[in-house]
Amino acid sequence: SDMLMWSVNDTVESVSLQLASILFSVPQISVHLDRITEEQKKALSHYISFWREHRDILLNGKLYACDPGAVYSKAYSEKDGKAVCVNYEDPTVQGEWDSLVAVNCTGKTYLYLDGFAGKSYKVVNCMGEEIGSGTLAEISKISVPRGGMIFVD
User: Fold this and answer.
1) So what's the pLDDT on residue 1?
2) Are 57 and 83 in contact, with CB atoms under 8 Å apart?
3) What is the mean pLDDT of the chain?
4) What is the mean pLDDT of residues 62-75?
5) C-alpha angle with apex 134: 132 to 140, nearest 5 degrees?
6) Residue 47 CB burial class (10 angstroms; 0-12, 13-18, ≥19)
7) 58, 24 Cβ separation under 8 angstroms
8) Tell me: the pLDDT tens digits for 20-66?
9) 22 φ/ψ angles, rounded to the nearest 5 degrees
10) The three-state (H, E, C) secondary structure of the chain, written as one string
11) Using CA atoms, how far apart are residues 28 and 44, in angstroms rounded to an integer?
12) What are residue 99's phi and psi, to 5 degrees?
């Protein structure tokens, strides 16, 4: 991927959206770590840790880029019953995977999940801090902040 840079004045959500945009490639970070905010460092650490943990799915899974007419409103990669979905415009995730991570890069503060009834979920903000959990219904509207993630098992 191209190297990522941002200003110390950027919000942590803005930084996390940049980090989420390169999840399906190898992250290359080009900022001075001693010149970014503590929140930006937390977001960077969270996203790099997430990428390391899920890189097999992200890089070696089957990649789908959805809705080219809307400039690809979401993309996901799946492998061995697991999926990582990045929602850029479309806030819906439909599937029947054993586990899922959906990243909210939309302008909305929620995601709709369809097809995960009875599964447990955990929501984290853009710095990886847990902010919610529960059990999903057949169709669920879950509060997920911009740059945040929902983990479904």
Assistant:
1) 57
2) yes
3) 95
4) 88
5) 100
6) buried
7) yes
8) 999 999 999 999 999 999 999 999 999 999 999 999 999 999 999 99
9) -115, 15
10) CCCECCCCCCCHHHHHHHHHCCCCCCCCECCCHHHCCHHHHHHHHHHHHHHHHHHHHHHHCEEEEECHHHCCCEEEEEECCEEEEEECCCCEEECCCCEEEEEECCCCCEEEEECCCCCEEEEECCCCCEEEEEECCCEEEEECCCCCEEEEC
11) 11
12) -145, 155
Among residues 53, 112, 43, the alpha carbon closest in space to that of 82 is found at 53
Q: Which residue type sits at 124?
A: V
pLDDT tens digits for 116-136? Answer: 999 999 999 999 999 999 999
Structure tokens at 35: 């010149």
Residue 3 has pLDDT above 90, yes or no: no
Locate 40 and state its tokens. 């930006």
Give pLDDT, residue 147. 97
Give the count of beta carbons closer than 10 Å to the beta carbon of residue 135. Answer: 11
- Closest Cα to residue 128, out of 143, 148, 108? 148
